[in-house]
Amino acid sequence: MDDFDKKYKSVSTWMKTNMNVWKILYNRYSERKFWVLAHIIDAYTKTLFHEVLEKYKLEFQKTSHMRFRDETGISRSIFGLDMVYNKKGELKVINPPSFWQKHIHKKKDYSWECYCGSEDEKTRKQILRFEPYVFCVNADPKGKKEDKDEMRKFYQSLFPYKSPFEL
Predict the structure, then answer these.
(1) What are the pLDDT digits (tens) for 87-126?
(2) Cα–Cα distances in Å, from 75 out to 5, 17, 32, 52, 70?
(3) Could you tell me whether strands 114-118 and 134-138 are parallel, antiparallel, or unpaired per DSSP bridges?
């Protein structure tokens, strides 16, 4: 595993998180496939959720005190991937749109499954253009106040009314 860490030391924090989760799951299940979860839109039963919490109690104790996420914060990935590796969840592989679909021709009534981006104009344009079912905008700690303000306006234009579960 030391070679693994050396080889991938320059990858993003998110990818390091996924690699750390994979190492934990590999030690438990000997599963060699490496999956990177984009986003999980699943409902877990309370029983399965508690099962994962108990199964990885020691790993969670190491990171539960963290205020901000880093590559050691396994909770973002371990719930979904454990469900896949122990065969209690179904993995759905979503192929990204082709170059043609993305840049030249968007079919009528075509929506992306999900879209991930940053707090920038490109992300806002892509979300409006491709109408994803789910999107994730990652906060940029080095982002400009203007971009953050524009994102707030963008969110408010997309979601002008509070959802029933918002306070």
Answers:
(1) 877 777 766 677 777 666 666 666 677 777 888 898 899 8
(2) 20, 9, 20, 10, 11
(3) parallel
